[in-house]
Each structure stands twice: as structure tokens, then as C-alpha cells.
Amino acid sequence: MHANAIKTVQARMPRPTHRDASHVATFSSSGGLAHRCGQALSRSVRAATLTRRRFPWQHSGLSRAAARGSLAFATQRGGFKKGAERTPRRPSVSSHTRMTLQLVSSLPTRCSRLAVPRLRSPRASMSSSFSSLPEDASMETEAPHAPVTRERRLNPSLQEQLPKPYLARALEAVDPSHPQGTRGRDPRGLTVLQQHAAFFDRNGDGIIYPWETFQGLRAIGCGLPVSFFGSILINLLLTFPTQQGWLPSPLLPIHIKNIHKGKHGSDSESYDTEGRFDPSKFDAIFSKYGRTHPDALTLHELFSMLKGNRNIYDFIGWVTAAGEWLLLYSVAKDKDGLLQRETVRGAFDGSLFERLQDNKKSS
């Protein structure tokens, strides 16, 4: 039965001939290394034929024998040595060997059975596996498994609309419509946050007392109860963080010089911790929450923004942010009940307060 199985394997396997070897020598006769590789392949074909006749169970195909002969030639330049029929040596594949095989595989062939399989470069395989990834994956602003990133979108074109939107401005509140800030207004060397607070410094001495806060709230159109309680709460919260020393003052003064120390949490972060204006954070207010109108907020969207900006356990920040934005909405919304982008920008640098004061005086 063993002999019959061997005959069956021999009958089914292709028989290499010396004519195939002559083909190899023919297309490899271009000279140099290619000619030497062709001669090595010719010898390996003859050796494979002899090996198949003597040891059919060791035969694994002509292409493999040809490649093995080429490897042996590249490493020992002698084909198969004596005794190679019994124990074929498998040389280590070096860089020179890989170059030889790639050269042989690139040569034309007249017989498909003599073709050496092409070797794929590991670098090419790696590049092809990464080709399916998005080209700008590092620039994505939405994550598939975070629905909140799709609900609160960012403006990917802000860089084209405003130069360096990531750069916080110290003196001007800029946006795509006002790249130079508020025209005709002197910042007086104050940060944007200091300009916001300076409106309530009625005598210009750099200190805001509760009665000055009351006068400022009244000047922008707040009612008497709101102005009274608002002035007390605002000065009570900001007097200690902005004071010069450790001992609190009973007059509850707010020092504009240190107003950046009174920045609370759960806000839009349009002010940074030094009082500068961050254009990208300001733009995110409307790109995230301005769904009805791209440059305005409804009252419902305003509440959504306040909820989205909340920091964990920051109860003072929650209440303070809600009071500020609802107060702004009550005095500055338009006839359609919208809080316009330009209105909000003017509130950040204080120019809105001056316009509201002028409108109230003229009326």
C-alpha cells in the first residue's frame, strides 16, 4: 500500500523537465547577478528532479525547490552539497537573499510553474493596513461612541474665519465679525475682564463698592430689587478674592486689579484665568448651543448651555453663572427673545453696558 501511495503522489505532481531549466537559463541570460541566479535555478531544477525520483515524499513543488536552490546559491554559491538529497539545508534568509529572490521574481517567465512567488515588504503591508484609517483622524471633533460630541459641535473652520483663534486676547474681545475687537474703544491697558468690571467703577478709582455696583445695575436697566440684592451678592462674593491682604473689609470693596482672582467655575471659559478673552471658547457657545439660530441663543438654549457648563459639585459656580446669564438675557434680549452673538461679545468687554446706558439716557 505504501508503494501504491507513492506512485499516486508521483502521478499527480507536475514533472519538471530539463526544458524548463533551459527556459530559466534563457530568460536569465541578461548578465551579471541575473545570469548567475538563472544558472543557480537551472542547477536547482535538475537537483529537484533527482530528489523527486529518489525521495518523492520530500518533494514540495518546483517553485519551492527553485527558491531553495536560489537561497543555497546566495549563501554558499555551490548549489546542493553532497548529501543534500537526504537532508536539504535551509539557509537563513538575509537581506542579500531577499534582494536576490525579489530580482528573480521580477524577471519574465515562459512557464508559470517556474515562477517564484513575490515577496511582500513588511513596510508595504503596514502601510496598506493603515490606508483604511481616516486621513485626518487627529482632527476629528466627534467620537462615534460619545453622542454628546455630535450634539455639541465645534466650528472646524474657525481658523479660516479668524487669525489664531486659539490665542487668548488680552485687550480686545475678537470674533470672526470683529477681528480687531470693538472699534473706536480704548482698552486703557486693561484686560477684557477688567474692562467688563470697570463699567461699575463709577468714580474710576479702581475699586468697586456695593453702592457703585447698585448704580451700574440701575444704569443698564435692572429693576430696583434686582439692583439692590445683586449689588450685595456680587460684592460679597468678590471682595475677599480680590482684596490686597488677608483681613476682609466691612465695606466689601472689589479691586479691579485682582478681578481675575474672582473668576468662578461652571462658566463658558471665554475668560481665561488671567482675564484674557479666548475667541475659540466664545465661538463654542454658539456652535454648541445655537441650534435655532447660528449666531443667537434662545432661552431654552441658554439653559442648555448652563447645564452643559456645570462642573461637578460647583454649586457656587452654578448659581453665579445662572444669575449672570439670566440677568444679561433680561436686559439685552431682542424683540424675538434671542440673545445675539454681538450682544454677548459686548457684555464680555463691557461695551454693551455703555450702549445700554446710552440708550436708557436717550429714552
Main sheet characteristics? 2 strands, antiparallel
Task: State the shape.
Answer: elongated
- Number of H/I helices: 16
User: Which spans have pLDDT < 50 for at least 5 consecutive residues?
Assistant: 16-31, 54-67, 73-88, 110-134
Helix content range: 40-55%
Whole-number count of domains: 2
What gap, in angstroms, lies between the N and C termini?
116 Å
The fraction of residues in strands falls at under 5%
Radius of gyration over alpha carbons? 41 Å
Total beta strand runs: 4
Mean pLDDT: 78
In sequence order, what are the helices and strands, one letter per element?
A: HHHHHHHHHEHHEHEHHEHH
Largest beta sheet: what is the strand line-up? Answer: 1-2
Q: Which class best fits the helix and strand makeup?
A: mainly alpha
What report would you give on this structure?
- This protein is mainly alpha-helical and 363 residues long.
- The protein is 51% helix and 2% strand.
- The chain has helices at residues 2-12, 18-27, 32-54, 62-76, 95-106, 122-130, 147-151, 158-161, 192-198, 210-219, 224-242, 279-289, 299-308, 315-332, 341-349, 351-362; strands at residues 207-208, 254-255, 296-297, 339-340.
- It is elongated and about 110 Å long.
Secondary-structure topology with pairs:
Layout (H helix, E strand, L loop, with lengths): L1 H11 L5 H10 L4 H23 L7 H15 L18 H12 L15 H9 L16 H5 L6 H4 L30 H7 L8 E2 L1 H10 L4 H19 L11 E2 L23 H11 L6 E2 L1 H10 L6 H18 L6 E2 H9 L1 H12 L1
Antiparallel strand pairs: 1-2, 3-4
Helix pairs in contact: 2-3, 3-4, 4-5, 10-11, 13-14
